[in-house]
């Protein structure tokens, strides 16, 4: 078994793994337009300020794709029944507005 100390963190590998997983979900049951990709340079709303100084987390979250959050629950994609995906780029936009 691999020891935790032998594992190296790679932001790019993590982003690729999440993106590949989300693309698989669009092939299985989600609508393709529910997957939203970050702009070049990452989501502008995800900053050290909105994430309270968690620099490595900010660098990862800024570049992950997200599953679109719908205001109408009939259209909300779920990971499993009753579990919605987190959309941190939208959440951080609300934080930045002071909400």
Low-confidence stretches are: none
Figure out the total of helices: 3
Mean pLDDT: 84
- Topology as a string of helices (H) and strands (E): HEHEEEH
- Counting copies of identical and different chains, the oligomeric state is single chain
Structural class: alpha+beta
Largest sheet: 2 strands, antiparallel
* Cα Rg: 15 Å
Please give the alpha-carbon distance between the first and last residues: 45 Å
Strand order of the largest sheet: 1-2
Give the fraction of residues assigned to helices.
25-40%
Beta percentage is 5-15%
The strand count comes to 4
Shape: globular
Describe the structure in your own words.
This protein is α+β, with helices and mostly antiparallel strands and 99 residues long. Helices cover 34% and strands 9% of the residues. The protein is built from three helices and four strands, in the order αβαβββα. The chain has helices spanning 11-28, 55-61, 88-96; strands at residues 35-36, 66-67, 78-80, 83-84. The strands form two sheets. A two-stranded antiparallel ribbon has the order 1-2. A hairpin with a 2-residue loop joins β3 and β4. The longest helix has 18 residues, at 11-28. The model has no long low-confidence stretch (mean pLDDT 84).
Short structural description:
The protein contains three helices and four strands. By secondary structure, the protein is α+β, with helices and mostly antiparallel strands.
Which helices and strands, and how do they pair?
Blueprint: H1 11-28, E1 35-36, H2 55-61, E2 66-67, E3 78-80, E4 83-84, H3 88-96
Antiparallel strand pairs: 1-2, 3-4
């Amino acid at each position: 078994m691999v020891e935790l100390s032998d594992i190296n963190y790679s932001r790019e590998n993590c982003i690729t793994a999440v993106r590949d997983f989300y693309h698989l979900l669009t092939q299985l049951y989600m609508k393709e337009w529910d997957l939203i990709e970050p702009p070049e340079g990452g989501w502008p709303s995800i900053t050290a300020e909105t994430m309270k100084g968690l620099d490595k987390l900010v660098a990862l979250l800024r570049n992950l794709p997200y599953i679109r959050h719908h205001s109408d629950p009939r259209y909300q994609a779920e990971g499993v029944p009753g579990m919605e995906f987190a959309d941190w780029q939208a959440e951080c936009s609300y934080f930045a507005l002071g909400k």
